[in-house]
Amino acid sequence: AAWSLTPNDLAAFSNLVALPAAASHLRFGGPLWAWCLVLAGAASFAYHGAETVRHDLGSHDMPGAQWAHAVLTPHEDLLLRVDRACAVLAGAATIAASGGPRHLVSRLLRRRGVLSLVMVGLTALLASDFAGITGWCYAVVHSAWHIAAFLSAGFIVQADGDDYDEVSAAAPADLLVVGLGNPGLQYVGTRHNIGADVIEKLAHRAGASLLPAPREHARAARVQRGTLTIVFAKPDTYMNRSGKAVVALCQAHSINEGARIVVVHDELDLPPGRLKLKQGGGEAGHNGLRSIVQHVQSTDFVRVRIGVGKPPKGQGPDWVLSRPDPEQAKDFEDAVELAADAVEM
């Protein structure tokens, strides 16, 4: 029998639309969120692709029908479970990248277009799973859910960036506090990222979320302390390009004096957990400080230096990119709390 289009083909085709849509979001919201979305798209593509191949070959009595049935059918349930698990993972990553459930809901309520897309996706999902529809009707609503899910996830995270830009342009800030570190899961908890850890702590204490600020190459939050407006930020650039983010943040928030910038960073010349505050001074071989000085053309900013200790002989740069030993972990946790206290003073 000749091959002909079936409803299952449409459901599989929706993955070819959704997967590139997911991949196109890799520049928004950080790599973890985007890769979760791509993983979900790939898992769904694998499941529907296997289902389509098995169905098409069998229904049209095409060569390979027996092989497809023997190989794909035993794994169909597993692929379905992986598909569902990855969809949940992508949803959780989207909520995290958008600043948490509270921020997600507030932004959806302010953006009716994205909210409508989310409602279309949810309605289509419920209809495809529980309404008892079959055939072409099922394929259409299932495809609508799949495409709407991936598109709305991207729009939600982009909306957060737009919200931050709108707020940042509303009024100048009095103080910019930047915590230095490297982006990416592989650097979380390393000595070099202790400055970024302090910013996370400050935002948490203030009940604020660090939202994507694409134009400033950072994640940032604006908080009010009495009459002062303070911006907490951690660059999305790598350490040696920190200045690119800091100068963009200064421009966005009308910070035109070095003395209104506080930089929190790791310090090799201090024992682990030791804290030292200093205004002005040199770079002490720190690539992040060097980049900031080059971009803002000032050394007057305040430095909150957190000791990570000198590396053992032979380790060199790998020392700051490693995580502290369990016996030192408590010292680093205390140092993060103390540094946050120092900034709040």
In short:
By secondary structure, the chain is an alpha/beta fold.
Strand order of the largest sheet: 2-3-4-1-5-7-6
Query: What are the low-pLDDT stretches, counting only 5+ consecutive residues below 50?
Result: none
Using the CA coordinates, give the radius of gyration. 25 Å
The ordered H/E elements are HHHHHHHEHEEEHEEHEH
Kindly name the structural category.
Answer: alpha/beta
Major β-sheet annotation? 7 strands, mixed
The total of beta strands comes to: 7
Number of DSSP helical runs: 11
What is the averaged pLDDT score? 78
Describe the global form. elongated
Helix amount, in percent? 55-70%
Distance between the termini: 79 Å
Report strand %.
Answer: 5-15%
Structure description:
This protein is an alpha/beta fold. Helices cover 55% and strands 12% of the residues. The protein is elongated.
List keywords for this structure.
345 residues; seven-stranded mixed beta sheet; 55% helix; 12% strand
